[in-house]
UniProtKB/TrEMBL annotation:
One of its GO terms (molecular function) is dioxygenase activity. Gene3D superfamilies: Alpha-ketoglutarate-dependent dioxygenase AlkB-like (2.60.120.590). InterPro entries: AlkB-like, AlkB-like_sf, ALKBH3, Oxoglu/Fe-dep_dioxygenase_dom. This is Alpha-ketoglutarate-dependent dioxygenase AlkB. GO terms for biological process: DNA alkylation repair. PROSITE patterns: FE2OG_OXY (PS51471). Keywords: Dioxygenase, Oxidoreductase. Residues 97-194 form the Fe2OG dioxygenase domain. Transmembrane segments: none annotated.
Length: 195
């Protein structure tokens, strides 16, 4: 296994493995997930109104629990064996355990994810979040809350990014919109929620 690059080393940690899985496997997994997962448009509640975003999501949890964030309930889908195999591999490399995963589908350069923290109270405190990228390479941005330091990392297909320690307390993260055309991308974030 390749050595991780350390992208953040204060107020939390972020580690990046450029080639966690081979590009050919990342491509096969992308095609499989694109066609075999039930994708629904992401919704957010803003000023009391429900807005539907272009980006699609899918939610999986080992105990079948739904996931509520931004005022919207995400319904758990039946577990998938390819994602379960990937979860085991991610757990081995990160020496962490996960009991759920959120998938994001970005159609093109216009889909993005605004700066946010994954610090819902339903998350196990201090647990890592591990993120596998498939499809088009996109830019991940991290902004430190008090210093406003900004870091960026292009996430290649087949890469693994791990956010841990106090990162969710002190940093926000997101995926940038792009001006140049981009193909579709799928991201899988493995999480540990309180049971
Ligand atoms: O698509 C990505 O790589 C980031 C996903 C993310 O920030 C999230 O699911 O909270």
């Amino acid at each position: 296994m390749e050595k991780a690059q350390k992208l953040v080393d204060f107020d939390g940690e972020v580690h990046y493995y450029e080639q966690f899985i081979a590009e050919s496997r990342a491509e096969m997994l992308f095609n499989y997930l694109e066609n075999n997962v039930l994708w629904t448009n992401e919704k957010v509640r803003m000023f009391g109104k429900l807005l539907e975003l272009r980006r699609k999501t899918a939610w999986f949890s080992l105990n079948g629990d739904n996931y509520k964030y931004s005022g919207v309930e995400h319904i758990a889908q039946k577990l998938d064996y390819k994602l379960e195999n990937l979860r085991s591999e991610v757990e081995r490399v990160t020496a962490s355990t996960f009991n759920s995963y959120l998938l994001n589908y970005y159609h093109d350069e216009k889909d993005y994810m605004g700066l946010h923290k994954d610090n819902e109270t339903s998350m196990q405190k201090g647990s890592a979040i591990a993120s596998v990228s498939l499809g088009a390479a996109r830019t991940f941005i991290m902004v430190h809350q008090t210093s406003q330091i900004q870091l960026q990392q292009v996430l290649s297909p087949g890469s693994l990014l791990v956010m841990k320690g106090a990162f969710q307390r002190f940093w926000k993260h997101g995926i940038l919109k792009e001006l140049n055309p981009k193909g579709p991308r799928i991201n899988i974030t493995f999480r540990l929620r309180k049971e």
